[in-house]
Amino acid sequence: MKVTKFGGSSVSNAEQIKKVLDIVNSDEARKIVVVSAPGKRNKDDVKTTDLLIRLYEKVIERLDYTSKKEEIIQRYKDIINELNMSDTLLKTIDETLENYIATLRKKPSRLLDALLSCGEDFNAQIIAEYNNSQGIPTRYISPGEAGITVTDLPQNAQILNQSYEALYKLRSFEEKLIIPGFFGISRQNYVVTFPRGGSDITGAIVARGVRADLYENFTDVSGIFRANPSIVKNPEVINEITYREMRELSYAGFGVFHDEALQPLHKDRIPVVIKNTNRPNDIGTYIRHDREIDSNSVVSGISCDKDFTVLNIKKYLMNRQVGFTRKILAVLEDYNISFDHMPSGIDNISIIMRSKEIQNKEEQVLNDIRKNCDVDELSIEHDLAILMVVGEGMHRIVGTASTITHALAESNINLKMMNQGASEISMMFGIDVTDAEKAVNATYEYCYTKNCLNI
Length: 455
Ligand code: ASP
Fold this sequence. Notes:
This protein is an alpha/beta fold. The chain is built from 15 helices and 16 strands. The longest helix has 26 residues, at 108-133.
């Protein structure tokens, strides 16, 4: 059995929805389908989820929200009309929106989640009804009925383990099932959404719950590229990648698959394939527990993410002081700041974090470190980019670091920091943000075009 998820651009209009259903109906094993909200139909379009956020803002600001609501209804009306369906569902859509607004107005974060969930919920209902009308027994299942029970933190739901057992029962349905992605129901009976892009997470949870043989994730590209195609010209598509590699690459900016979606799959080793709705016969990229490694795939991919800030701390004889780092980390904890990397020397330490973590708190954090930690020197640097070179093959060969540093030196890129964990699955290089694109191109060329990493 397969669980098949379609992203926003795959279900953005009637034409796309027909393609989706052709894919679903062409394979008996595609029994359970998870759908996103209608995404952008063209470059300048707005995602339905974003329209719902606009509606929410109007309601909260106590302004007239009618035109925002109408815009949302119009998105579904277009789909329904183009599919030649009766528009009875439009009434339900209007009533559902009004009902959430009336009952949750005084609980803004609850209202936001409830409205956000509508994007996928309405789409799933339309898609199920349409497929049924085409003679294929199909049924809409809400997350509540499916048993997707989540924690109660708005816009940041986490799945509760009890869900997996409940979801297993979906196997017994005869019909094809269409489930809306992106949200679950809390024990307190609230609608709670996953973080943005969270339909991938729903798909992964359902795949684990029904013990699927494969989780298919359909999007608008034919797999995951080895590097960002807007930086590197015609990068290769990755054939196979491991969960660990995928996690590292998503962390550093590979947005094709949500990193939180890997967690449920990892445990039961359910493979994932990323495929293209517009070119369903392309092989796509498989994400698995293990993979074959050859000379062209020592490194799986290269990514570079911007907007990092680094705190540089110097303390003479730091290595001999028990508890010095703990005091610094305690300050970060006080300000609820999480950090990503911490390369260090005997008398210095750098703490790297996403800039948004320390935004608006910078002065207080620096003052507290000065006050509590008796440092010799403390400085803060913005505009750091992190280049990540990721590959399970790196621990098998000698010279990966030398190849990459050579590539960067050739392009005259100054390395501010380097870090490699014991697992040798990724190497991190801190560089100036202005060098980001150059660094990705130089590294790509050495790893793939010149094929310098031979096994
Ligand atoms: N519709 C939601 C979003 O735009 C979730 C998703 O599409 O995965 O973030």
